[in-house]
Structure formats: C-alpha cells, structure tokens
Amino acid sequence: MLKSRYLCTIKTRQIFLLLIFAWFLLNLIQSLFTEIGNDESYYWVYSQYLDWGYFDHPPMIALVIKIGTLLAGNSVLGVRLIVMIMQVVFLYVLYKLLEIEDTRENVVLFFLVSFSVVMLQAYGFIATPDSVLLFFTVLFLWSYRFYIKSNYSVKAALLMALFMAGLMYSKYHGALVIIFVILSNLKLFKKSTFYYSIIIALILYIPHILWQVNHDFPSLKYHLVDRSRGFEWSNLVDFLVNQLPVFNPFTLGAGIYVLFINKKGDLFQRALKFLMGGFLIFFALWTFKSRVEPHWTIVASIPMVILILREAVENEKLKRYLYKVVAPSLILVLAARLFLMIDVLPVKTEWHGDKQRVSDLYAVAGDRPVVFTSGFQMPSKYRFYTGSEAHAMGALNYRNTQYDIWRFDEDYLGQSVVMDFRNDTTGVEPTVSGESVFNLKEVEQYQPFKRLKVIPSIKDTPLSTRKINEKSVTINNPYDNTFYINHPSMPLQISLVFIAEIDGKIVRKKVPTVSTFESDKILSGESVSGNILFDLSEYPTGKYDVYFAAGTTGVYPATLEKPWKVVFE
Question: Fewer C-beta neighbours within 10 Å, C or N terminus of the chain?
C-alpha cells in the first residue's frame, strides 16, 4: 500500500515537472521568435542606465533585464531570460498556495486554469513591470500565509517585509496588493511583528522615495495628475470589455462565480477574495478618473486561479465546466501566441516589422543620432537593434517620458542629426528607405530647445480673436550652453498650443508666432526678452489651457512647463 502511494506521488511530481518544463520551453521558443515589444525595449534602455527610479516605474524591471542581458547578451533572449525563470518559480509557489491534495488530476487542472489566463501567459516571457509584480505578489502571499500559520512570527514578518519592498520596487500597483491583504485582516494592527514588516519595508524603499524627491516626483505627477482625463462612459465600457481578453472570458466567469458562491474560508482565503475583488472594483472605479489599461488588473489572476481550483476539488459541476469550456479555449490562447511569432494578421502590431523599420531608418541615419519628436517606443527599439544613439524629444503632441530625465539630446549639441517626425508631416517630404516610409528632417547642427522656458506677459489679460495679438515674452535658458535664436539649422520659433472644440471635434491646435528679440543669443542660465505676434481669428472664444512653447521651423513645439489658463474673447 505504501509502495503504491509512493509510486503515485512520484508520477504526480513527474507530471508537474513535465508540464512546468513544457511551459518554460514554450516561453523560450516564443521569446526567441517574437520581436521585442515597445515597452520591453524602453525597459531595456532603463537597464542600460540603472537607477533607483524612472519616470514611469520603479526600478525592479531594469534590474531584472540587466541581469538577463549580462547572462545572455543584449538580445531578445537576454531581455526576457530572468522573467521566464521567475515564472517557473511563480508557478511552483502558486501551486503550493492551493493547499489541495497532490494528485495527477489536480496538477493537470492547475496548469489548465493557469494556462487559460491570457495575460498570465504573456507575462511569462514579456519583460515588463507586471511580470515582476506577479512574481513578488505570489511570494508576498506565501509569506503572509506563513506569517499567519507561524503565529505571527518575527521570521515570517521579515520575509513579508522583503516581499512588500519587492512589490513596491516592481510596480506602484504593489501598494494595492498590500492594502487589500491588510484590509482583509485588520487585526494585523494588533500584532507587534506586523509593524516590523511595515517599518523594514519602508526602510528598504527609502532609496526610491529619495529618487522621487530629488526628481520632483515625476512618477506621481504622471500617474495621478497627467493621466487624469475625467470620467467618460467609454472608459468604463472599455474597462469591462477589456477584462475578457486579459483573463479569458471563460476563466473570468468561473472566477467571479467562485468569488460569490464560496462563503467559507480562513484568513488566507479571505485575503484572496479581497485581493481579487479589490483589484477589479478599484480599477472599475478608477475609470471615473481616467482610462484604465486592460492589464492593470492582472494581479487578480493569482487569487482567481487559487479560488477556482480550491472550489473545483469539491465542486464537480465546476470541474466539468473547466474541462468542457475552459480547456477548449486553450486552442485560442495558443493561436494568439502563434500570431505573435508569425506575422500573418492584416493588423499592424508592435511585435512585427519594427526591426526591419529600424534597419531601414539606420540605412538613412548611419552614425548620426536620431531624434524622435514623439513616442518612446521607436527610439528605444532603435537603440536596441542598432546600438546607435537615439532620443525621444517628446513634443506637445505626445507626453513626457524617462528620456526627459536622461536628456540624451543635450549631448548632440552641434552634431549632425536626423529628426524623425513619425506621424507629424509638418513641412516634410516623405523619405523612402527599404520597405519603410519616414517623415525625416536632416539637421546639420542640432541644438536642443525643449527645456527653454517661455514666459508670456499675459497675467489675467484675455487674448483677442478679432485682431492680431502682440505680447512680450521672456525666454529663459536653463541649458549649460548658449542658445542661438537665429541658429542656422534650428532657429527658434515660439508657438501657442491648445486644445479646442471645433465643429464638434476636440482638436489640438498650434498657432505659430512672428517674434523679435533684443538679442540673438541667450547665455546659459540667463534670459532674453522680446515680442510675439499671433492671430487667433480662426478660433472660438472661451477659456483654454495654452502652452507657450519653444520649437523650430517644421518641428512640433515642446515644453516641460505647465499651460497657462487664458481667455479668448
């Protein structure tokens, strides 16, 4: 009898190891044959300049990619290597958290349900902050369960502190994981060892907090202020619809079913419910503030998988549903992974073609740096695939990024560069290279202008839509070099940029000005005054947020300054 049970256990372990190896092998093949993604290339550039923080995210993903590239080189495999290894650990710990009988059927069910969660698969090879967030979430849940079972021991508290810090260094959503678990068990505040966890986690997080302070809190401003657009019904509808492909609609249905019908459970089970329901409800409410990216709820997949499988062990109806409905959907999931590797769809995606496009651009630019006027994606891919200099300037028709902290383009002063306007065709003849078409401008002597501060003398004075406006302005030069207003390659042009509703459509309008200044050059750290003339007769009266921004001929203007609230009358 003992021998039979032992053999059964061995077979169960073999099945588990076989399936987890197959999953890893699939991720490896996927990684090798799938081009680097937009965000992945951006985080790869992070890893080339390790720091305690970045404009968009905490630094854990940069460290993960750095380790991978040290082991496998600056290749797609290097970028994704540690993420793939982390998911093996993730799956092992997740399986242990099930606390169900270790049988062959339960092992198969575990992989069936886990494999059915679309984004859980994606983050098994795509290197993003969500990948490491999932990893530290499952470790934090393991440490929390250990903390409860060990009668709130110091050892478990220290482990929780370590993984809480890991969560926060992975993605700011890690704070929600911690908060929802705490809300599920408020008696934690009566445990002295719980305060050890909080204090040590905060101490470990101090370097990132100091980075935010030293850089004027760019991440908080971006995520909490700049991304806020107010409530739109489309945001809520998009959120609800987008959750279906994130989790797999059939798996999500099972998860919501279990969340409501399962009323029993211990403190850990309660934490799982708070975590799953909390993430879904929190981001549904967040749509009242701004648009929610579909994958922001992916952490809910961890408690979802656990709750589904715990219930399926005792619920034959649910088990049949998993076999008959969820299992067939795996074919669609595998097809989606195949489409990432093979460019057969008529729709252009970030996973196909950009490697060739970068090569075509390099054929034009050669050794010259490339300055992109919008988007962090292509300059990151350009750096990754060519190893050459590229910068994302971030004009006012796009947002600021980590490139505004790096300020690579200040090193290009006086150099010959190529500017890529992407979708902006302002005064540019298309350039054909290989299989690609670009909107390029070749500049003999580059001078950066985004950090110039344009200060208009408008105060509370309205601007006229009935006559030409004439206003005095002051231009402050924060650069280390002299800025030349009548530069031979990039003369200064001041523009007004604002958002207006014209003919029922919301449009971004750029109004160029005619300017005169008291001097042709602005010394480093100094200012120059002048006058600008501009015509607003084409625009309706009203109150607008107006950017007075620096630019140059044929290039969309840019600024780091906040808009002025101005009345057009």
Answer: N
